[in-house]
Amino acid sequence: MEYLDFELPIKELLEQLDKCQVIGQESDVDVTNTCEQINQKLEETKKNIYGNLTAWQRVQLSRHPSRPYTLEHITNLTKGTFLELFGDRGFKDDKAMIGGLGKIGDQSFMFVGQQKGINTKMRQFRNFGMPNPEGYRKALRLMKMAEKFNIPVVTLIDTPGAFPGIEAEERGQGEAIARNILEMVRLKVPIICVIVGEGASGGALGIGVGDRVLMMENTWYSVISPESCSSILWKSWEYKEQAAEALKLTSADMKRQKLVDDIIPEPLGGAHYDKATAFKTVEEYILKAFNELKDLSTVDLVSQRMDKYSKMGEFNE
C-alpha cells in the first residue's frame, strides 16, 4: 500500500501493530492488550483523518496509484461479459478512451470511459488518460450505436483533461468535444455518468452529459486542475491547496451546487482500501439510476435532460 503525506500517521500505527504482532508470535510475551490499544488508536486516527479531508486531499485520493481505474470498474461490473469495441472509423483507435458492450446482471449497457493505465508503460500506452479527438469520436460512435439498438449508456470519467497537443488541435479537439456534448444532450437512450477519479475540464465533459451524473466520494470535477489554476492566478503551483478550496471541486461541493445528482460513498480511506465494496456500491447506484430512467418515453427523457442542463448556473445572491 502506498501512503499519501497526510496518511503517514496511519502508516506509522500499522507498522507499530505489525511489530507488536511479531513480538507476540516470536516470544511468550502477551501483547494482546497492546495490540488492541494500537488497533483502537488506528481506527480513531483513520476516522479523524478521513472524516476531515480538505479539497486538496480529496484530489490526492482521486489520483492514488492504487485507486481502481475505469477498465477495472468495467471488468468487475460486467463480470466477464464486456466486449471492447475499437476505432472511430475515421482516423485510428484511441487507447485513452475505451468502450464496449457489457451486462450488469441481465441488463446490457454501452460502457465508455477514459483509461489511465496502471504502470508507467501502460500510462504511456494510454496517454495518461488524455484522449485525442479520435477518442471522443469513438465514444460518440459507440453511443450512437447504443441509441440504434436501444441500449443505455454508462460513461466512466477519469481524466486530467483532453490531450492538449498540437496534433490534437489540428484534428479538431474542440470540435470533437463540442459535438459530443451536442449529441449527448439529445441522445434517445438513458445516459448515466460516473466520475470515478479526476474530472477535469472539457476532457471530462466530452463524455459527461447525462440524465444522472454521479460522483464517487473522493473524486473531483472542475473546469481546471488546482495546479493549473494556481499557476494562472499566483504564477506558481505552490498555491494548489488554496486553489482546490476556491474551485469548489469536491463531490459535496458539486452536489450542493446541483451540478451532479448523487454521491457514491466509498470505503473509509478510499475505493482502493476495499475495492470489492466500492465496485458493488457503484453497481447499485448505476442500477438505481437506470431503474429511475428506463420507463421514461424518449420525448420525456430528452426533455428532462435538456431542462436539467438549462437550469445549471442559476443562483440567488
What does this protein structure show overall?
The protein is an alpha/beta fold. Helix content is 49%, strand content 15%. The chain is built from 14 helices and 8 strands. Strands 1, 2, 3, 4, 5, 6, 7 and 8 form an 8-stranded mixed β-sheet that branches. A hairpin with a 2-residue loop joins strand 2 (97-104) and strand 3. Helix 1 runs antiparallel to helix 2, helix 3 packs across helix 11 (240-247) and helix 10 (226-233) crosses helix 11 (240-247). The radius of gyration is 21 Å and the shape is globular.
Beta fraction of the residues? 5-15%
Can you tell me the residue ranges where pLDDT is under 50 for at least 5 consecutive residues?
none
Biggest sheet architecture: 8 strands, mixed
Question: What number is the mean pLDDT?
Answer: 94
By DSSP (H or I, 4+ residues per run), the number of helices equals 14
Alpha-beta classification: alpha/beta
Number of strands: 8
Helix content: 40-55%
Separation of termini?
45 Å
